[in-house]
Specification:
The chain is mostly beta strands. The protein is globular. It is 7% helix and 22% strand.
C-alpha cells in the first residue's frame, strides 16, 4: 500500500507516477530477512529541473515485535507491538533529472531501491503489511493529479462524529441532506485524506461519500470514545457501509412507451425526509392532443422535452422530478407512507457484497462473497445483522444466528430491494458518482477459492477491479480463500492494484475511488428483493414470503400480458415494456433501456443484461457475475429461481426501517 501526498499546485506541469508493488510479508519460525526491490518512475516535462522524493517505511505489525525495516543504509528502530515502526533517521533521498525526457515525458526516468525487512525468530507466524511512503523533496516538487493518488487501505475515525455535526452536514451544492448514523456505527475516512483534510468526513461534490463501519462488541466502546484520527483495525471491523442520501431525480422516461434516452448522468437534488416529496406528472399534456401517449413506439415522445411538463425542481407534483421511491418505507405495511418515520433520510448500503458465514455475516473487502444459499436464507440472515428482526417469520431459518450480530444501537437491516439497487445505480450515474459508463467490472477469478462456509467458487472476491482498465474477466492468480483463510490482501490478485484501494480496484466502485460502493458489476450476481406476482417459485427456496414492504412486487396484471406494440419475443423481455414509474420507477429497468421494445439480452445502458422476471424465474438478480463480462454491469437485471448457485450472493442495507 502506498500513500503519495499531493505536491504544491505550482508544479502542475510535472507528473509523477510510482509503479507500486504492494508487499505482504509472511513470517517463518526462523529469522527471516526479506529483500524487496522497488522500481519507481517519474515523468516530467521540464528538462532543466531535478525532481525527487524521500522514502519512509513502516510495517503494520499489530502482533509483531522486534521487526526492523531498512531502506539503503537507513534502518528503523525495533517495531513496538501494536505500533507501526518508522525509520529512525533522515529518510532516503531519490533525485531524478529529467534531461533525457524533456521531449518524451511519458517514458519517464526510473530508479530502484532496496528494502529489507528483518523478522526475528520470536515473531508470530502470520502475514504483515509493509507501507512505503513517498514525499516529494525537490523544488519544484512533482505534481500528482488527484485521480492518480492511491489511498491506503487504512481507515481512521472521522472527525464529524457527533450528532449535531452529522445532521447539519452540507454534502453537496444542491441542497442539504441528513446522515442518519446509528450510535454504534463508527464514521470513517481513508487515512490518506484524513492526513490532508483531517476535519472532512464526506463531501459528495468531491465524490467522497460517507462511510462508516460496525465493529466487534469487545472494541465498540474503545472506538466510540477514541479521538478522530484513530486507526480502525481491520480485524475489529464487522462491516463497511456507504451512505446513499435521500434525493430526488429527474425522470427520463415515465413509462416504457416514452422515447428512449441513451446513457447519461441523472440530474439529482439531495433532500431531507422533511422536504416535500416529489411525484412526477404521469402523462403528456398538449392542447391539440398530438403529444398524448398513443401506445405506439412511432409516436413516442421524450418525457422531459416533448411533453410540455415543467423540468423545474421544487414543486411536489406536476413536474418531471421524483423523490426516489427507495427512500419511502412502509413500516406498518398499510399501503401508504404517511406514518411517522416512513420517509427515510438515507440508506447505509453494504459497501461490498455480503461476506463471512451465513450465520455470522460480515461486509468486508478482500474476502469471498457468501454464496450458494437459498434466497430465503439470504433474506433471513440479512435481517439478523440489525438491531431487530423486522419480518421474523419470513424466509428460511438459519441455525446459529445471533440477532444484532453487528452491535447496532437501534437501526435495522434488510436484504437489498430492487428499488434500493436503483437508488445506488442512479447516484453512481450522476455528477456525484462515476457516471453511467464508468463503473468497471469486478473481474477477479482466482482458482480454488471458497466462501467462509467452505463452498467452492471462483466467483465473488469482494472489492476487486479489472486486470486492466476496460478489460473483462481474466483467469486470476489471487490467494485462494476458504473457511480458514477468509481474507487476504492478495485475494483479488498478486497485483494488489486490483484490490479495492488500488488504482484498478477503484475503477470498480460507484465513485471510481475508495469512497464508493463496490461489486455492482461482476463479482457474483446479487439476489435482490424483487419478485413476480408475489410468488416464491418454490417453498424450498423461500419457505415463507416476506411482508409486502420488504420486496418490490410485479403483479399480474399489469405484468404478464404483452402490449400490442411490443416487438419482444418472450415474457422475460416484454415485461420491461409494461413498466411505468409507479411499477418500476427508480429501479434501473425501463428508465435505462436503449431500445423502445426489449428484444435481446443486452439492451440496457452499457449493453447490460435486460431480462425481467416472470413466473419462471420470479426473483431478480442484479449486476451480473464476472463470467457474464460484457453484459454484467450496474444496469444489468436477470431472473433467478432463488435456488442456491455458486455465482449468486446478496447485499445488506441498514437504516431506520
Amino acid at each position: 500500500m502506498f500513500y503519495r501526498s499531493l505536491a504544491p499546485t505550482q508544479a502542475a506541469t510535472s507528473n509523477i507516477t510510482v509503479i507500486d508493488n504492494n508487499q505482504t510479508i509472511t513470517t517463518t519460525q526462523d529469522t527471516n530477512i526479506t529483500t524487496i526491490t522497488r522500481t519507481s518512475e517519474v515523468n516530467v516535462t521540464d528538462s532543466s529541473a531535478t525532481y525527487g522524493y524521500t522514502l519512509t517505511a513502516q510495517i503494520s505489525a499489530n502482533n509483531l515485535t522486534g521487526a526492523t525495516v531498512t531502506i539503503g543504509s537507513d534502518t528503523s528502530s525495533e517495531c513496538p507491538k501494536a505500533t507501526p515502526c518508522a525509520l529512525s533517521s533522515t529518510p532516503t533521498n531519490i533525485l531524478i533529472t529529467s534531461n533525457n525526457n524533456a521531449t518524451n515525458p511519458d517514458t519517464g526516468e526510473t530508479t530502484t531501491f532496496e528494502v529489507k525487512i528483518t523478522i526475528p525468530a520470536s515473531s508470530n507466524i502470520g502475514s504483515y503489511t509493509l507501507d512505503i511512503t513517498y514525499d516529494e523533496t525537490a523544488t519544484p516538487a512533482p505534481y500528482i493529479p488527484p485521480d492518480q493518488l492511491t489511498p491506503t487501505n487504512t481507515w481512521v475515525k472521522a472527525a464529524n462524529s457527533n450528532t449535531d455535526a452529522i445532521n447539519s452536514i452540507t454534502g453537496t451544492s444542491k441542497d442539504q441532506f441528513t446522515v442518519d448514523l446509528d450510535a454504534n456505527m463508527i464514521p470513517i475516512v481513508n487515512k490518506a485524506d484524513d492526513d490532508t483534510h483531517p476535519s472532512s468526513w464526506c463531501n459528495y461534490d468531491e465524490k467522497q461519500w460517507c462511510n462508516a463501519v460496525t465493529v466487534t462488541a469487545a472494541t465498540l466502546a474503545t472506538y466510540q470514545s477514541a479521538p478522530a484520527g484513530t486507526i480502525i483495525n481491520e480485524e475489529d471491523i464487522l462491516g463497511y457501509f456507504t451512505y446513499v442520501p435521500r434525493y430526488a431525480y429527474e425522470v427520463m422516461r415515465h413509462s416504457a412507451i416514452d422515447k428512449v434516452v441513451q446513457a447519461q448522468n441523472f440530474d439529482i437534488h439531495f433532500e431531507k425526509s422533511t422536504t416535500p416529496k416529489k411525484t412526477p406528472a404521469d402523462t403528456c399534456s398538449s392542447s391539440d392532443g398530438s403529444e398524448n401517449h398513443s401506445g405506439t413506439p412511432s409516436n413516442a415522445k421524450d418525457y422531459r422535452t416533448e411533453c410540455s411538463i415543467s423540468r423545474t425542481y421544487g414543486a411536489p407534483t406536476g413536474t418531471t422530478w421524483a423523490t426516489h421511491p427507495a427512500f419511502s418505507f412502509d413500516k406498518n405495511n398499510d399501503g401508504d407512507y404517511a406514518d411517522s418515520g416512513e420517509e427515510l433520510n438515507g440508506l447505509w448500503v453494504g459497501k461490498f457484497e455480503t461476506t463471512g458465514t451465513l450465520s455470522s455475516p460480515t461486509v468486508k473487502p478482500n474476502s469471498h462473497a457468501n454464496i450458494y444459499q437459498y434466497i430465503g436464507e439470504f433474506y433471513y440472515a440479512a435481517q439478523r445483522l440489525g438491531a431487530t428482526a423486522l419480518d421474523p417469520s419470513a424466509g428460511n431459518t438459519v441455525s446459529g444466528m445471533t440477532q444484532n450480530s453487528h452491535n447496532l444501537a437501534n437501526q435495522n437491516s434488510i436484504m437489498l430491494k430492487n428499488d434500493q439497487w436503483g437508488a445506488i445505480a442512479y447516484l453512481s450515474s450522476s455528477t456525484y458518482g462515476a457516471g453511467p459508463n464508468n463503473v468497471q467490472i469486478n473481474a477477479a477469478y482466482p482458482y480454488g477459492s471458497a466462501d467462509a462456509d467452505g463452498t467452492s467458487s471462483r466467483y465473488g472476491i469482494t472489492g476487486c477491479g479489472p486486470s486492466s482498465s476496460g478489460s473483462g474477466f481474466t483467469y486470476g492468480d489471487g490467494t485462494a480463500l476458504n473457511a480458514t483463510t477468509t481474507q487476504s490482501a492478495t485475494a483479488c490478485s498478486s497485483n494488489t492494484r486490483r484490490a479495492y484501494h488500488g488504482t484498478l480496484g477503484q475503477l470498480a466502485s460507484s465513485t471510481n475511488n475508495v469512497y464508493g460502493i463496490y461489486d455492482l458489476s461482476g463479482g457474483v450476481s446479487e439476489c435482490v428483493m424483487g419478485n413476480y406476482n408475489n410468488t416464491p417459485s418454490s417453498t424450498t427456496y423461500m419457505a415463507t414470503m416476506p411482508s409486502a414492504n420488504y420486496f418490490n412486487n410485479y403483479p399480474v396484471p399489469p405484468f404478464g400480458t404483452q402490449p400490442s406494440w411490443s416487438s419482444s419475443s418472450t415474457e422475460a423481455y416484454y415485461n420491461n415494456d409494461i413498466c411505468t414509474w409507479s411499477t418500476c420507477g427508480g429501479q434501473a429497468l425501463h428508465e435505462t433501456k436503449t431500445t423502445q421494445s426489449v428484444s435481446s439480452e443486452d439492451q440496457s445502458w452499457r449493453s447490460d443484461y435486460s431480462y425481467f422476471v416472470f413466473s419462471n424465474p420470479p426473483w431478480f438478480t442484479r449486476g451480473g457475475s464476472l463470467y457474464n463480462s460484457s453484459v454484467a454491469g450496474v444496469f444489468a437485471s436477470v431472473g433467478t429461481l432463488g435456488n442456491a448457485y455458486d455465482s449468486v450472493g446478496f447485499r445488506v442495507v441498514v437504516g431506520a426501517f
